[in-house]
Amino acid sequence: MSKRTERGSVLLPVLGCILILGLLAAPLLMQVNVGLLQAKTSGEAERAYTYAESASAVYVRLIEAAAAEGVTGEELRQLAAALQTQLQAELTAKGMEGGIVIAVRPASGDPTGVDFAVTSGSGARARERVVHLALYPPAPGGGSGGGGPGAGSDGTEFYYRYAVVMPDSARNPVFNACGSGNKLADDAYSNTYITAQYEQEFESYFAYYRERHLALAPVPPDLAGAAGDKTESAALTVSGTRPGVSYAGDIELDSGAAIAVSALPDGAAIRAAGNLKSTTDAHSGIVLEGDVYVGGDFTFQGGKLRIAGDLVVRGDLRIASATDELIVEGDLLVGGSVLTYNSVRQLTVYGDIAVGQNVHFGNTAVIAAQGDVRIGGSLIFENTIDQSSIGGNLLVGGAVQFNNTLERLEIGGSFRIGQSLATKTVNRLVVGSDILIGGASNWGNTVQLLEVGGALVGGGDMRFRVSVNALRIGADFWTMGSLTFDNSVSGLETGGYLAAYRDIRFANNVYSTANGLSGFYAGGTVTFPSWYEWASGTICIDHGPPPSGGDGGGGGYTIGDRTSN
Known about the structure:
Residues 543-565 are annotated as: Disordered. By secondary structure, the protein is an alpha/beta fold. 18% of the residues lie in helices and 35% in strands.
């Protein structure tokens, strides 16, 4: 029997067993996702997204289980078809209107992605959500994947040949071998690497992250549904319980009492060609049972608002007063800026958030967004952000500022920042994939926990001004500038390399309780505290080749980000 036939005979039973386990886990995944929303609802958009996200999660687990066997493109398509059949049967058994389609892209050749499209509901209530999973084909030479930063390496670069590159040999004893605790071999160090060669090889490796940063640039929101000419000069007042309304002018929600608006046949509850605003704090609540389209600005005076569909605003969304809850069961799409002037105790969006310009939270905020968050301009938090979660990616075109405590923020996908990042105290920031920063980053106060499933990459200088208690990076920790720790570092763990284009500076202790790297590289000066001159074994190195580098054998597909629309 050929090696290929042996591999196939093992692979298919494995996939079959994992498929059954995955299907048993699917309902649990759905409940977990719903739980993140911190609210119960029958919204069709939320239901569709939950099923699509759960299906993609199961598919990822199947690929991971088969990765060691080198799953092929054709087997990925067979797997998608089998999973679609199984999940469609489950949805039908649950009495859900709609269906699921799992499509591998392209239809032939090396797959580069998988789309999970789920429709929930019927008629005007029907909502579709699509989760996109990126795939990177194996490298032509048989490496471990075609999408890694080391895909173009030839095995002669500094990160291949050495565990540590820095100009000062006096600091070599700071490093030892992970596990054994033994000192690194003499040929694991280079203290005389040619600067120009280092910079060239660094830039070549860094190009992968630069391309990923560009690829994740936020896409502007689709505002076509809010198009319309304003022909009416007088505002229309909406109050009480009533059918949906479409008006070629401004609409005012008389929010002194409860408001409930049902949907029109086209699924819209409110369609205003001009501005939409609530007249006062909606303590009794506003319920809009369909999509809301606004040709101008939407000003919400605070209180409670639930929209059972999409909220599409061509201008700005202004939240003027303290808001108990703002729930959007579809997508939140804003062509201008989102501006809040008081606390937002709960902003829940079951689809995506897409904003053409800036997002500015003037006071405290709690956010639960199940899809992607795309912001064309800057993202600014003036006060504490707490107990917040984003199920997909957080993609920002401009700068990001946390001007007060970041108490808790969890991001399921990547955190992409177009320009600079500035923070104060960070108590818990957990990112499932990469943090990619276009410019400099200034971590201005204590970092209690920064956990990144992928890489932490900066396009400029990166500085941690106060103590770092736990810094866990699943892949590389790279910066296209200098890296500075002004105070102590209690835990520094990376699954990849720690590397700086220029200097690396530790001004205080690097505690040895939980420090481990795959490599340590600096193009400029390396500084440790003066009392480290004779220190031994403070940082351990478990050196290995880069992801997708070299000409290894038996590799399969690399799993990329999950995005949604």
